[in-house]
Structure formats: structure tokens, C-alpha cells
Task: structure prediction
Amino acid sequence: MADHDTLIVSGLKDPWKFLFVDMDVAMLAVLVSMLLMIVGLSAVMAAAGGGGFAYVLHVSRRGKPKGFARHFSYWYFPPVVTQLRSVPPVWAHRTVG
Result:
């Protein structure tokens, strides 16, 4: 028999959702849509672009651990974009351990 307290705690740790996607994916889709409308695309094309971006991001995150996008951006973008304090610098990642 399952412990109900454990089920409640695991439900509280779930990420926030907007409809059926994670909240951060939905916010990025809205941001991309707004940027596409600023560029000059119509609202329909901007919504399609934002939705496509959200779909690709949602599918690419499937099966990845929490915080994967942040660590991915750390390794592949310049240090000005994102800096993680608990991860060693890029030049030292093979020497630590």
C-alpha cells in the first residue's frame, strides 16, 4: 500500500505547468512570439514560430534531468551569458575529480 504522504510530497515538487507544458517553456514561447512580432511578422506567424520553438524545446527536454538547459547553456555559451557557481570553469572540467 502506497504512503499518501510520499505521493503528496512528490506532487508538490512537480514543476509549474501552463496547460500541458512546463511554465518555463510556455514563457519562452511567449517571449519568442513577442520577438517575432517586434521583427514584423504577423500575429499568426509569430504564434506559429513561438509554438514551434516551444514544441522543439519540450521534446528536447524529455528524459533530461532538472536544470539540464541551464548546464547546457553553461557549457556552450560564453561566460557572460550564464555563470554557475557550483560548476568548475570550462578549462578545468577534465582536471577536477
